[in-house]
Amino acid sequence: MQIRAIATKRRKAGQTMLQIAICDDEQFYRDKMKNLLERYMQKNALPYVIHTFLSGEEFLRQCEHNMKFDIVFLDINMEELDGIRTAERIRAYHSDTYIVFVTAFIDYALEGYKVNAVRYLMKDNLEGALEECMRAVLHKMQVAQVSFAFLEGDKKLYTDRIIYVESRGHKLLFHYMEAKMEIYQIYSKLDALERQLEGNSFLRIHKSYLVNMRHIRTISNYVVFLDTGEELSVPRSRFQSVKESFVDYKGAL
Q: What values do phi and psi take at 153, rounded to 5?
């Protein structure tokens, strides 16, 4: 088992895809953003999938079905459900999605801070600003990868998309979010994996569960509530230390 941080420009095809969403009610800008992003991703040999949505409502229907995006380019000035309210709903589902607002106006900074937007792009300067934006976002993600010889075949996983790892018998089951939840299996022990993943925000909540704290919504009543909707039990003997570790993690973000 090997874990290593990698420069984004060196990711190769065949690795786990970055899930990117563009949400804009104007087809011209949806197409323009998609073309610019495809050019950037291909130039830097980054594996990706780009999804486009024509309204906040359409986008949120995917979130409600546990579709998780790494980066969302979100038009602020959409009809009906605008970008700010859409972003607020995104935060209710996924706290670690990177939101980039795309707008024709400059006077939305305060609203953006409320939903932890990482960047603003002006629609009249997309060509000049998008590359710098993507470099900044990918650097902020600090993407690390895990390489394993899974029973399903050798595969590299982004650590921030591992929801949790479950020990079952002599196997470890990786619950992993791609376009949908996938499960990858390997023969190993959770103690060894916990040591390998040290420093990547994983928390041992149970003898059988190692959980990525990025995906914990809250912890209460001896239960960990995940952003996928799943609930995992915490033994009474571990509960206080688990809760303290999670509070420390949230305070350090």
A: 125, 160
Estimate to the nearest angstrom the gap between the alpha carbon of 184 and the chain centroid.
18
Residue 153 and residue 158: Cα distance in Å, rounded? 16
How far apart CA 122 and CA 190 sit, in angstroms, is 47
How far apart (Å, rounded) are the C-alpha atoms in residues 158 and 185? 16
* pTM of the predicted model over 0.70: no
Integer CA distances (angstroms), 112 to 73, 82, 116, 135, 139, in order = 13, 12, 6, 20, 20
If you count them, how many residues does the chain have? 253
Helix (H) or strand (E) holding 225: strand 223-226
Question: Mean of the per-residue pLDDT values for the chain?
Answer: 83
Q: Tell which residue, 193, 195, 194, 189, has the closest CA to residue 167.
A: 189
The dihedral region occupied by 33, where left means phi > 0, alpha psi between -120 and 50, and beta the remainder, is: alpha
Task: State both tokens at 93.
Answer: 């589902």
The 10s digit of each residue's pLDDT in 56-105 is 888 888 776 667 788 999 988 887 777 888 888 887 766 678 889 888 77
> Which secondary structure element, helix H or strand E, spans residue 136, and what is its range?
helix 126-141
Answer for the pair 143, 13: CB distance below 8 angstroms, yes or no: no
Residues with Cβ < 8 Å from 199, sequence gap 6 or more? none
